[in-house]
Design goal:
This protein is α+β, with helices and mostly antiparallel strands. The chain contains 5 helices and 3 strands; from the N terminus they run E-H-E-E-H-H-H-H. It is globular and about 50 Å long. 3% of the residues are buried.
Length: 135
């Protein structure tokens, strides 16, 4: 067996539980956990000596604008790669929402795209306020 270590957990918002049943969406087992913490990042030390890392939050590329999101991803990958991660972790440069948007290619953007960008810019300002206050 594998030895699992929780790295992060969160309580999903209520709207995460209102989707129809499906392989990649809500179902009665998932909905029974509404309001309870869910492990979203974990690592494992496997019986064969390898190490694994899993994260359920890759859904939005915009999350890379979040300093805490990037830090946990970068540091988890660095640790798996055999690097010694400093106590405060490695830091990376924050890409702007506009910079992330400029790297999205190959898909036609919907008519509501500009409104969505404004929404993500607002969210980004909220979630990075703590990091910005420490600077």
């Amino acid at each position: 067996g594998a030895d699992f270590t929780k790295i992060a957990q969160a309580v999903p918002t209520d709207n995460a539980f209102v989707r129809a049943d499906g392989r990649h969406s809500g179902n009665k087992y998932v909905r029974s956990l509404k309001g309870r913490p869910t492990v979203i990042i974990w690592k494992s030390k496997n019986a064969n000596g390898t190490t694994g890392f899993a994260f359920t939050g890759w859904h939005n590329i915009w999350n890379y604008n979040n300093d805490n999101f990037r830090k946990i991803i970068v540091n988890s990958i660095a640790e798996l790669g055999g690097y010694e991660v400093p106590a405060q972790g490695f830091s990376t440069r924050r890409p702007s929402i506009a910079e992330i948007d400029s790297r999205i290619s190959g898909k036609k953007k919907p008519a509501s795209w500009e409104k969505a960008l404004k929404d993500w810019e607002r969210k980004a300002a909220e979630w990075n306020a703590e990091s910005d206050a420490k600077k």
